[in-house]
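Model it.
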Amino acid sequence: MAMMRLRREDPRVVGSFRIHRRLGAGGMGVVYLGSDRRGQRVALKVIRPDLAEDQEFRSRFAREVSAARRIRGGCTARLVAADLDADRPWFATQYVPGPSLHDKINEEGPLSAAEVASVGAALSEGLVAVHEAGVVHRDLKPSNILLSPKGPRIIDFGIAWATGASTLTHVGTAVGSPGFLAPEQVRGAAVTPATDVFSLGATLAYAATADSPFGHGSSEVMLYRVVHEEAHLDGMPDALAPLVRACLAKDPEERPSTLQLSMRLKEIAAREAQGLSDSRPPVQRTRNGQELPTGRLTERYTERSAGLGAPGRAPGASGGQVSRPGPSRSTGASPRTGGSSPRNGSPRPPRSRGAARTGGGRPKPGPRTGSGKLRPANPRLLRQRLIVFVVVTLIVALGIAAAQQL
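Modeled.
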C-alpha cells in the first residue's frame, strides 16, 4: 500500500496512536498509518471534518465499526480500537501490508488462472465468515482487497449492511461502485449474500483480464449494462469462465453460494497449478438442507471449453480426456481371445461374439476391469476425498485465525 507524507492539516496523534503516514483518502475520511505505545502498526481511519456533524455519515461510520467487530476469522483486518463519540470519529484496525488487487493488476497485468482461483477461493471463504455475521459488504471490488503475505484481506465495510436491507440511502441513488454492483443494487432491491457473489465474480474477471466485465463509461452507462447486458469475458481462462459467468447471473437465485465457490475454486487452483484442464460446470447446490445457500444454480448451464466433453461426462475423467458414448453391450459379450487384452482401432459398430478381430492401434492406457473394459470412476471415493480436503482446509484456516488472535 502506497504511503504519503502527512499534510499540515493532518493530526499527529489520534487517541493513543501516533500518526506516521497517509495511506489513502476516500469519500468518508482519511486512512493513516499509526502505531501504539508497543509499536504495533495500525491503519487508522478518521472521518472528514465536514462530515463529522452529519448524523447520516456518523451512522454509516458506526455500521462499519459494528461490522468489523462482528466478523471473525482472518479474512478482514482485525479491529483494534475505535471512538465513535469523538469530534472526528475514528477506528483503528490491524495494518495489512501489501498492495490492493487493483494496484497489482494495474502495475503488473492480469493474474494467471491458478492465481485468480487461489485468490478467489480465499475471498469466498472470507465472505462465508462475513455473511455468517449477518453482514453484506455491498462494495466488494479490487481496490477493497489487499494482497497481504498471509492471503487476501477484505477491507472498507463503510456501506456494509445487514442481510435483506435496501441498497438505497436516498431515493433513486444506488450505493457502491459501478461495474461491480449487482443488478439488485441498481434496482434498489434488498441485498443478500448473493449480492457479494456478483461483485466477487466481477472482481475475479478483472483480476484475470485486467478489465471490467462491463467495459468503461459513465456511471449511468455502467449501471445500465450491469442490469441489461451480459458480461464480456473475452480473455477469461477457460477453467474460470463458466464459474465466473455463473456468479454474474442477473437473477440472485441463480448464483452459486460462497461455500460452493470456495470449494470449486480450490479445485481449479490445484488443477491449474498442475497444468491440468477441467471442463466441469459449477457444482449444483446441495439438496439435503445442510447448506444455507444464497440462491440456486440452474441446470441449464451449458458453457463448455472448446473441444471438451458434453454435459454428463463423468467428473472423474483424468487429464481432460473425453469418454465417448459407444454401442451398448450385454454382460455376456466379452471377447474370448485366450486371455489376451483386446486391441481396438477406430470406433466400430458392435459385432457378434465370434466375429474375427482385425488389427488396429493400441488403446490409451487406463484402469481396466478383468474383461478389459474401462473401469468407471468411484463417486464415493471422490466424495470422501473432497470431504477430507474441505475438513483439512477448514482446520488450517481456523488455526491461522486463532494464531492471528494471539
